[in-house]
From TrEMBL:
This is GNAT family N-acetyltransferase. GO terms for cellular component: cytoplasm. Keywords: Transferase. Residues 1-20 are annotated as: Disordered. It comes from Nocardioides agri. InterPro entries: Acyl_CoA_acyltransferase, GNAT_dom, Ribosomal_N-acetyltransferase. It comes from the Bacteria. The lineage of its organism: Bacteria, Bacillati, Actinomycetota, Actinomycetes, Propionibacteriales. GO terms for molecular function: protein N-terminal-serine acetyltransferase activity; protein-N-terminal-alanine acetyltransferase activity. Residues 104-266 form the N-acetyltransferase domain.
Amino acid sequence: MLHVTGPGRAEVRSTPAGSPVDPEALGAALDAAFADGVGVVGWWVPVGDWVARRTAWRLGFAYGGVLRGWVDGADAWAFTLGADDPREPRTRWLDCPVIEGDGVRLRPLTTADAPRVVEGIGDPDTQFWLSFMPRDPGPAEGLAYLETALVRLADNHTVTWGFAETGDDRLLGAVGLYRLDTEPELGYWTHPDARGRGLTVRAARLALGHAFGTLGLSHVAAYAAAGNAASLGVLEALGMRRVGVRRRSATTGDGRVADLVGYDLLAEELSAG
Protein backbone atom coordinates (compact mmCIF):
# COMPACT_ATOMS: atom_id res chain seq x y z
CA MET A 1 0.00 0.00 0.00
CA LEU A 2 2.86 2.39 0.94
CA HIS A 3 6.20 2.22 -0.85
CA VAL A 4 9.35 4.11 0.12
CA THR A 5 10.64 6.01 -2.92
CA GLY A 6 13.63 7.80 -1.45
CA PRO A 7 15.07 9.22 1.77
CA GLY A 8 12.16 10.41 3.87
CA ARG A 9 9.65 9.89 1.05
CA ALA A 10 6.96 7.34 0.32
CA GLU A 11 3.93 7.08 -1.89
CA VAL A 12 0.57 5.38 -1.89
CA ARG A 13 0.38 2.90 -4.71
CA SER A 14 -2.87 2.73 -6.65
CA THR A 15 -4.99 -0.35 -6.13
CA PRO A 16 -6.52 -2.39 -8.97
CA ALA A 17 -9.67 -0.96 -10.47
CA GLY A 18 -12.66 -1.74 -8.30
CA SER A 19 -10.51 -2.24 -5.18
CA PRO A 20 -10.73 0.97 -3.14
CA VAL A 21 -8.10 1.76 -0.52
CA ASP A 22 -9.21 0.92 3.02
CA PRO A 23 -8.97 4.25 4.92
CA GLU A 24 -8.26 2.56 8.26
CA ALA A 25 -5.54 0.35 6.79
CA LEU A 26 -3.98 3.31 5.01
CA GLY A 27 -4.12 5.36 8.21
CA ALA A 28 -2.26 2.62 10.06
CA ALA A 29 0.33 2.39 7.27
CA LEU A 30 0.85 6.14 7.43
CA ASP A 31 1.39 5.98 11.18
CA ALA A 32 4.01 3.28 10.74
CA ALA A 33 5.77 5.10 7.91
CA PHE A 34 6.00 8.39 9.78
CA ALA A 35 7.24 6.56 12.88
CA ASP A 36 10.01 5.06 10.73
CA GLY A 37 11.19 8.50 9.64
CA VAL A 38 9.22 9.15 6.46
CA GLY A 39 8.66 12.90 6.19
CA VAL A 40 6.15 13.14 3.37
CA VAL A 41 3.86 10.74 1.52
CA GLY A 42 2.61 11.34 -2.01
CA TRP A 43 -0.48 9.89 -3.61
CA TRP A 44 -1.12 10.17 -7.34
CA VAL A 45 -4.84 9.44 -7.70
CA PRO A 46 -6.09 8.74 -11.24
CA VAL A 47 -8.43 11.52 -12.32
CA GLY A 48 -11.98 10.27 -11.93
CA ASP A 49 -11.30 7.94 -8.97
CA TRP A 50 -13.62 9.76 -6.60
CA VAL A 51 -13.48 7.09 -3.90
CA ALA A 52 -9.69 7.48 -3.60
CA ARG A 53 -9.91 11.27 -3.78
CA ARG A 54 -12.40 11.37 -0.92
CA THR A 55 -10.18 9.05 1.12
CA ALA A 56 -7.21 11.36 0.55
CA TRP A 57 -9.36 14.31 1.63
CA ARG A 58 -10.57 12.53 4.78
CA LEU A 59 -7.00 11.67 5.81
CA GLY A 60 -5.77 15.25 5.48
CA PHE A 61 -3.76 15.01 2.27
CA ALA A 62 -3.14 18.37 0.57
CA TYR A 63 -4.29 18.65 -3.04
CA GLY A 64 -1.59 19.95 -5.39
CA GLY A 65 -3.17 19.92 -8.85
CA VAL A 66 -3.22 17.63 -11.88
CA LEU A 67 -0.20 15.73 -13.18
CA ARG A 68 -0.66 15.09 -16.89
CA GLY A 69 -0.04 11.53 -18.06
CA TRP A 70 1.36 10.54 -14.66
CA VAL A 71 -0.34 7.19 -13.93
CA ASP A 72 -0.03 4.68 -16.76
CA GLY A 73 -0.28 7.52 -19.26
CA ALA A 74 -3.40 8.99 -17.65
CA ASP A 75 -3.78 12.23 -15.70
CA ALA A 76 -3.59 12.08 -11.92
CA TRP A 77 -4.58 14.26 -8.99
CA ALA A 78 -1.52 14.99 -6.84
CA PHE A 79 -1.83 14.72 -3.06
CA THR A 80 0.78 14.95 -0.31
CA LEU A 81 0.74 14.45 3.45
CA GLY A 82 3.50 15.48 5.83
CA ALA A 83 4.42 13.72 9.04
CA ASP A 84 3.29 16.70 11.13
CA ASP A 85 0.11 17.44 9.19
CA PRO A 86 -3.24 17.02 10.99
CA ARG A 87 -4.96 13.79 9.94
CA GLU A 88 -8.25 15.49 9.08
CA PRO A 89 -9.84 17.28 6.09
CA ARG A 90 -8.20 20.60 5.25
CA THR A 91 -11.27 22.07 3.57
CA ARG A 92 -14.99 21.49 3.35
CA TRP A 93 -16.24 19.03 0.72
CA LEU A 94 -19.48 20.62 -0.40
CA ASP A 95 -22.75 18.73 -0.62
CA CYS A 96 -25.13 19.00 -3.56
CA PRO A 97 -28.47 18.06 -2.00
CA VAL A 98 -31.75 17.51 -3.76
CA ILE A 99 -34.04 20.50 -3.11
CA GLU A 100 -37.64 20.77 -4.25
CA GLY A 101 -40.14 23.60 -4.22
CA ASP A 102 -42.52 25.63 -6.36
CA GLY A 103 -42.68 22.95 -9.04
CA VAL A 104 -38.89 22.77 -9.50
CA ARG A 105 -36.35 20.19 -8.39
CA LEU A 106 -32.63 20.88 -7.91
CA ARG A 107 -30.47 17.75 -8.08
CA PRO A 108 -26.88 16.70 -8.74
CA LEU A 109 -25.88 16.44 -12.38
CA THR A 110 -25.28 12.94 -13.75
CA THR A 111 -23.61 11.52 -16.85
CA ALA A 112 -27.09 10.98 -18.30
CA ASP A 113 -27.40 14.77 -18.46
CA ALA A 114 -24.42 15.18 -20.79
CA PRO A 115 -26.43 15.47 -24.05
CA ARG A 116 -28.74 18.09 -22.54
CA VAL A 117 -25.73 19.97 -21.13
CA VAL A 118 -24.21 20.08 -24.61
CA GLU A 119 -27.48 21.40 -26.06
CA GLY A 120 -27.79 24.01 -23.31
CA ILE A 121 -24.25 25.41 -23.26
CA GLY A 122 -23.98 25.11 -27.04
CA ASP A 123 -27.14 27.10 -27.72
CA PRO A 124 -26.37 30.31 -29.66
CA ASP A 125 -27.73 32.62 -26.94
CA THR A 126 -25.72 30.86 -24.24
CA GLN A 127 -22.62 30.94 -26.44
CA PHE A 128 -23.07 34.66 -26.99
CA TRP A 129 -23.66 35.79 -23.41
CA LEU A 130 -21.55 33.17 -21.62
CA SER A 131 -18.54 33.25 -23.88
CA PHE A 132 -16.40 31.38 -21.33
CA MET A 133 -18.31 28.23 -22.24
CA PRO A 134 -16.48 25.92 -24.66
CA ARG A 135 -17.06 26.81 -28.29
CA ASP A 136 -19.17 24.35 -30.29
CA PRO A 137 -19.30 21.79 -27.48
CA GLY A 138 -19.62 18.08 -28.15
CA PRO A 139 -19.82 14.94 -25.98
CA ALA A 140 -16.31 15.44 -24.55
CA GLU A 141 -17.13 18.98 -23.43
CA GLY A 142 -20.40 17.82 -21.89
CA LEU A 143 -18.60 15.21 -19.79
CA ALA A 144 -15.89 17.73 -18.86
CA TYR A 145 -18.58 20.10 -17.59
CA LEU A 146 -19.95 17.35 -15.35
CA GLU A 147 -16.47 16.45 -14.09
CA THR A 148 -15.75 20.09 -13.27
CA ALA A 149 -18.91 20.26 -11.19
CA LEU A 150 -17.66 17.35 -9.08
CA VAL A 151 -14.16 18.81 -8.74
CA ARG A 152 -15.53 22.13 -7.52
CA LEU A 153 -17.54 20.39 -4.80
CA ALA A 154 -14.35 18.72 -3.61
CA ASP A 155 -12.48 22.05 -3.73
CA ASN A 156 -15.04 23.90 -1.57
CA HIS A 157 -15.60 26.22 -4.51
CA THR A 158 -18.98 25.71 -6.17
CA VAL A 159 -22.24 23.82 -5.82
CA THR A 160 -23.80 23.23 -9.24
CA TRP A 161 -27.25 21.72 -9.53
CA GLY A 162 -29.16 20.59 -12.55
CA PHE A 163 -32.77 21.66 -12.38
CA ALA A 164 -35.91 20.00 -13.67
CA GLU A 165 -39.62 20.22 -13.14
CA THR A 166 -40.98 18.23 -10.23
CA GLY A 167 -42.01 14.79 -11.48
CA ASP A 168 -39.93 15.05 -14.68
CA ASP A 169 -36.19 14.50 -14.36
CA ARG A 170 -35.30 15.95 -17.78
CA LEU A 171 -32.54 18.53 -17.37
CA LEU A 172 -33.77 22.08 -18.04
CA GLY A 173 -30.70 24.03 -16.97
CA ALA A 174 -28.15 24.50 -14.22
CA VAL A 175 -27.83 26.87 -11.29
CA GLY A 176 -24.73 27.29 -9.17
CA LEU A 177 -23.32 29.01 -6.12
CA TYR A 178 -19.73 29.92 -7.00
CA ARG A 179 -16.63 30.87 -5.02
CA LEU A 180 -18.23 29.89 -1.74
CA ASP A 181 -14.89 30.08 0.04
CA THR A 182 -14.31 33.72 -0.96
CA GLU A 183 -16.96 35.83 -2.76
CA PRO A 184 -20.22 33.86 -3.16
CA GLU A 185 -21.88 34.39 -6.52
CA LEU A 186 -25.00 33.04 -8.21
CA GLY A 187 -24.86 31.78 -11.79
CA TYR A 188 -27.15 29.86 -14.13
CA TRP A 189 -27.97 28.83 -17.67
CA THR A 190 -31.22 27.58 -19.15
CA HIS A 191 -31.84 25.01 -21.87
CA PRO A 192 -33.50 26.73 -24.84
CA ASP A 193 -36.67 24.65 -24.62
CA ALA A 194 -37.22 25.73 -21.00
CA ARG A 195 -36.97 29.50 -21.40
CA GLY A 196 -39.76 31.98 -20.78
CA ARG A 197 -41.50 29.86 -18.13
CA GLY A 198 -40.01 31.29 -14.93
CA LEU A 199 -38.18 28.05 -14.16
CA THR A 200 -34.76 29.65 -13.79
CA VAL A 201 -36.06 32.18 -11.28
CA ARG A 202 -37.64 29.43 -9.21
CA ALA A 203 -34.50 27.27 -9.39
CA ALA A 204 -32.28 30.19 -8.42
CA ARG A 205 -34.54 31.05 -5.50
CA LEU A 206 -34.14 27.51 -4.16
CA ALA A 207 -30.37 27.79 -4.53
CA LEU A 208 -30.35 31.09 -2.66
CA GLY A 209 -32.43 29.53 0.10
CA HIS A 210 -29.73 26.87 0.47
CA ALA A 211 -27.03 29.55 0.45
CA PHE A 212 -28.61 31.58 3.23
CA GLY A 213 -29.98 28.64 5.19
CA THR A 214 -27.82 25.53 5.06
CA LEU A 215 -24.57 27.28 4.15
CA GLY A 216 -25.17 30.23 6.44
CA LEU A 217 -24.11 32.90 3.96
CA SER A 218 -25.09 36.49 4.61
CA HIS A 219 -24.82 37.82 1.06
CA VAL A 220 -24.67 36.53 -2.52
CA ALA A 221 -23.68 38.52 -5.61
CA ALA A 222 -24.59 38.02 -9.26
CA TYR A 223 -23.62 39.58 -12.59
CA ALA A 224 -25.16 39.79 -16.03
CA ALA A 225 -23.89 41.49 -19.15
CA ALA A 226 -25.59 44.74 -20.07
CA GLY A 227 -27.95 43.85 -22.88
CA ASN A 228 -28.69 40.34 -21.63
CA ALA A 229 -32.31 41.11 -20.91
CA ALA A 230 -33.26 37.56 -19.95
CA SER A 231 -30.54 37.20 -17.33
CA LEU A 232 -31.11 40.68 -15.95
CA GLY A 233 -34.79 39.82 -15.68
CA VAL A 234 -33.98 36.75 -13.58
CA LEU A 235 -31.97 38.84 -11.12
CA GLU A 236 -34.68 41.48 -10.89
CA ALA A 237 -37.36 38.82 -10.35
CA LEU A 238 -35.31 37.36 -7.49
CA GLY A 239 -35.42 40.74 -5.76
CA MET A 240 -31.69 41.25 -6.05
CA ARG A 241 -30.51 44.82 -5.77
CA ARG A 242 -28.46 46.49 -8.48
CA VAL A 243 -25.22 47.69 -6.91
CA GLY A 244 -23.12 48.95 -9.81
CA VAL A 245 -21.50 48.33 -13.16
CA ARG A 246 -18.14 46.76 -13.91
CA ARG A 247 -17.27 48.48 -17.15
CA ARG A 248 -15.87 46.43 -20.03
CA SER A 249 -15.55 43.38 -17.81
CA ALA A 250 -17.13 40.78 -20.08
CA THR A 251 -16.56 39.51 -23.58
CA THR A 252 -19.50 38.39 -25.70
CA GLY A 253 -19.44 35.57 -28.17
CA ASP A 254 -18.62 37.88 -31.07
CA GLY A 255 -15.47 39.09 -29.33
CA ARG A 256 -16.81 42.46 -28.24
CA VAL A 257 -16.45 43.77 -24.70
CA ALA A 258 -19.50 44.53 -22.57
CA ASP A 259 -20.26 45.99 -19.19
CA LEU A 260 -21.27 43.69 -16.35
CA VAL A 261 -24.19 44.80 -14.22
CA GLY A 262 -23.71 43.80 -10.59
CA TYR A 263 -26.42 42.73 -8.16
CA ASP A 264 -26.47 41.37 -4.66
CA LEU A 265 -28.90 40.00 -2.11
CA LEU A 266 -28.74 39.82 1.67
CA ALA A 267 -30.10 36.84 3.57
CA GLU A 268 -32.94 38.84 5.11
CA GLU A 269 -34.00 40.11 1.68
CA LEU A 270 -34.80 36.72 0.15
CA SER A 271 -38.54 36.32 -0.31
CA ALA A 272 -40.57 33.24 -1.09
CA GLY A 273 -41.46 34.76 -4.47
